[in-house]
Design goal:
- By secondary structure, the chain is an alpha+beta fold.
- It folds into two domains: about 1-80, 2-Layer Sandwich (Alpha-Beta Plaits), CATH 3.30.70; about 85-160, Alpha-Beta Plaits (2-Layer Sandwich).
- About 30% of the residues lie in helices and about 40% in strands.
- The chain is built from four helices and eight strands; from the N terminus they run βαββαββαββαβ.
- The protein has helices spanning about 15-25, 55-70, 100-105, 135-150; strands at about 1-10, 30-35, 45-55, 70-80, 85-90, 110-120, 125-135, 155-160.
- Strands 2-3-1-4 form a four-stranded antiparallel beta sheet, covered by helices on one side.
- Helix 1 runs antiparallel to helix 2 and helix 3 (about 100-105) runs antiparallel to helix 4.
- The longest helix is centred in the last third of the chain and has 17 residues, at about 135-150.
- The protein is elongated and about 50 Å long.
- The chain starts with a strand and ends with a strand.
- About 25% of the residues are buried.
Length: about 160
């Protein structure tokens, strides 16, 4: 099986996400990640990005199933060159709105594959490790945005490692 990424737009109503998952399952695909981004909803439509594992010959059939259901398919890519990058942030990461920081990091299409944090209490300094995944261009854009966010929120970007 190969990794692939599918981007679609869904109506913001119950049962819509299940329709995508059923199309993937019908073609024997395995869902690895789902990003359902209600924060970027436009005209009642929610962008959704799935990372899946699927046999290459079945990817087109998934796209066809989605389109037959009236789902807007923004893009389908097989075997993108995704790298991983680990960043560590120290400071009041939670008090400065960690969700906002994560949303900004994801803007270029980068996936957040893992979050690990150390926090003694909400008033203390915390350490958060993000494992990011994306194309070299996506990672570069996300790291630039993250550096700006850390500066603005007075957070320390301690380490970056491939």
């Amino acid at each position: 099986m190969n990794e692939a990424e599918i981007e679609v737009e869904l109506r913001d109503s119950p049962g819509e996400l299940v329709r995508i998952l059923e199309a993937v399952a019908a073609e024997h695909g395995n869902v690895v990640t789902v990003v359902h981004d209600r924060a970027h909803m436009v005209r009642g439509r929610v962008p959704v990005r799935l990372q899946i594992q699927v046999e290459p010959g079945r990817l087109a059939a998934i796209g066809e199933r989605l389109e037959e259901q009236g789902i807007t398919v923004r893009g389908i890519e097989l075997g993108r060159d995704h790298g991983k990058h680990v960043v560590i942030i120290v400071g009041h990461v939670f008090r400065t709105d960690i969700k906002n920081t994560m949303d900004i990091v994801r803007e270029p299409g980068t996936l957040i594959r893992g979050v690990d944090s150390r926090l003694t209490d909400e008033r203390s300094v915390s350490t958060v490790k993000f494992v990011l995944q994306g194309s070299p261009e996506q990672l570069e854009a996300s790291l630039d945005l993250l550096a700006q966010v850390c500066e603005r929120k007075e957070l320390l970007l301690v380490g970056e490692a491939q």
